[in-house]
Amino acid sequence: MPQYGDLENKVVLLTGGGNGIGAATVRAFAQQGAIVEFCDLDSTAGRRVEVANQGSRFTRLDITSERSLVAWIRAVAKRHKRIDALVNNAAIDPRIPLDEMTAAKLDKLVSVNLRPLFVTTREAVPKMKAGSIINVASITFHTGPANMSAYVATKGAVLGATRSLARELGPSGIRVNTVSPGWIMTDRQLRDYVNADVKKLIRRSQCVPDLLQPEEIAEVILFLASNASRAITGQEILADRGWAYS
C-alpha cells in the first residue's frame, strides 16, 4: 500500500466502518498512522475492527438519528480539536422491485444513504481546515440495475451533492469527491449475491477481469484524503476495473 506521510496523525471521521469497504478503509488509514474515529450499528464487527487497528476508535451509532450523529461528531471534534478528513461510507443496498416499494422503504434508504451525508458534512466542516471529504457512491448509478431504483437514486443524489458541495466548500480549502466502487467482494456480497454466474458477468463486464476487493477501494479513498490529490475536487472516481456501461 502506498504511504502518504501527510496522513500521519490526521483525524479521520468515517461512517460504516464495521465491515466491507468501511473496515478496509479504517485499516488503511490506521496503517498510515492516522487517528480514525468510526461508527457502525454492528457492535461486534465494530469492536473487532477497533481491536485490530491501533489508533482507531469505534462508536456504536444509528446514523439515522440526527441527534446521535451530531453528538458523536461533536464529541470527536472536542476530543481532537479538529477533523481532517470525512468519509461518508455507510449505506444499505436492498433489492426492492417497484411494485414492492413503499414510502417507508424509500424513507429508510434515504435515512441511511443520503441524509447522514448532509449531517456529517454540516457538523464536520467547521472543524476542518483544507480538509478532504470523500463520499462513497456506486457504479449502479451508471449501470442502472433492475429492482434497485431507490438505491440507485440515492447514489445519484450523492454524486449531485458532491459536485455542489465542492463548489460551496472550495473557498475554504475543503475538497469533496466521490468514489464509485464496482462490484466489490465483501463478505456480505459473497454471501448474499455473488454466485458463479455473477462472477462470470463481472469478469465479462470489466476490462480487467480480476474480482475487486475492499482494500482496493480503501486505497482510492486514501489517495483522495491525502495531499497527493490536492488538485482534485468535485469529481467522481470510478473504481470499477473498467466496467463496460454500454
Into which percentage range does the β-strand content fall?
5-15%
What is the percent of helical residues? 40-55%
Separation of termini? 32 Å
Q: Number of helical runs?
A: 10
Main beta-sheet strand count, sense and barrel state:
7 strands, parallel
| Strands side by side in the biggest sheet | 3-2-1-4-5-6-7
Structural category is alpha/beta
Overall spatial form: globular
Structural notes for this entry:
This protein is α/β, with parallel strands linked by helices. It is built from ten helices and seven strands. It has a seven-stranded parallel β-sheet with strand order 3-2-1-4-5-6-7, sandwiched between helices. The protein is globular. The relative contact order is 0.16.
What's the quick description here?
The protein has 246 residues and is of the alpha/beta class.
Strand and helix map with partners:
Layout: E1 11-15, H1 20-31, E2 35-40, H2 43-52, E3 56-60, H3 66-80, E4 85-88, H4 103-113, H5 115-124, E5 132-136, H6 140-143, H7 149-169, E6 175-181, H8 187-192, H9 196-205, H10 214-225, E7 236-239
Parallel strand pairs: 1-2, 1-4, 2-3, 4-5, 5-6, 6-7
Highlighted features:
seven-stranded parallel sheet, 10 helices
